[in-house]
């Protein structure tokens, strides 16, 4: 699609949404994989002055409903195969309309590795996206005037002490990150960006999709990530830049047919969202001749704000063996503070604090959480870090119990709540354990009710009916008693250290 095609299609789509009563400040959810329609809807909403509500397409019923309710969304765009479940899930919510689209539209090949079926499902009652573009062709919405403080994306991030919170990524935040990342990485006119990171995630939405818009580069979309499809896309489209989780790169590395020829056009590769072992980066470069640059960002910083400069290799922190996440990008102030809130000397550990035009003004409808996390515009990341005298930043530990799976954030209590729904479960605790492939893996420790038995496979399948796949435990250890404090609080830290593997115990009552 040319820029002219995209502009005309998003104009028509904006007019269609406007006809359904959508206007400035409204939140509209996009519940899609990495398909061209995602970008078209993004642009259409901005032309209306509306806000993009990123919805993980893997979210199931209550997960989806919780975010839609909190955001007060007025509309949702989903895949045609999801219409029935989406309508059931959102019945009685603030959503006034649901538009659907077929992933078969706007694509250059019907690849069975990407599309499970070539059958088209019936469209949503409020219309099919392509049909709406045709119906409103030549139309434009009423002009709007957006400012830097208007919210471009409402992006939900899971906390450690409560339900997901919506970070208000403003247009000013987005412009700051896009311009600094483009300058830092060297993405410019004529480049080809492959969207490996999902567009519902702030990194995919900003450092893949929006960077393509502002730099006049080509955006290549390939649906939900599939390693073989992504590998072929590198060579077929002459990809010059992408950012993705280390899990994606590991999956590509595991392909026997992968070789240096697939990355011949690449200028820079970046990875973010999950820890990277130094050996993984070295192994990838030895085989393909391409170095994976580390990067760091948060939903609250509107994606990447610390990164390894192109052409340089990240040093390793001698004390912890941690690969540096890079250096602060322009206009970001990064410092390490102690318990008293004052900066610590270079080389000493403390909490990483960030401030600058990339940091969001707050959480949607949660002033107390905003004040606690980013008082005065200074974001307390909850990560234990070291900044050396050269300005390299290292993450050496975590303050939070949050689990980071391939760049996706998992709240332990949410997984525990799902496990507790099983009638045989007495107590459950969920922790993250290091994983060379995913960064971290979700692991559960469970005690059973007296006289009952349960297998690991049964409980994993049970959680899979209630949670997105990446949130489900990969391993479950059945133990007689979970370690607790004197007040009865389960001690997750002890579970991370202990070797408590064993068969299910029927003795716990």
Automatic annotation (TrEMBL):
Domain AMP-dependent synthetase/ligase: 2-364
Pfam name, any one: AMP-binding
Start and end residues of each AMP-binding enzyme C-terminal domain: 414-489
InterPro entries in UniProt: AMP-bd_C, AMP-bd_C_sf, AMP-binding_CS, AMP-dep_synth/lig_dom, ANL_N_sf, ATP-dep_AMP-bd_enzyme
Protein name in UniProt: Class I adenylate-forming enzyme family protein
Source organism: Streptomyces salinarius
The organism's taxonomic lineage, starting at the top: Bacteria, Bacillati, Actinomycetota, Actinomycetes, Kitasatosporales
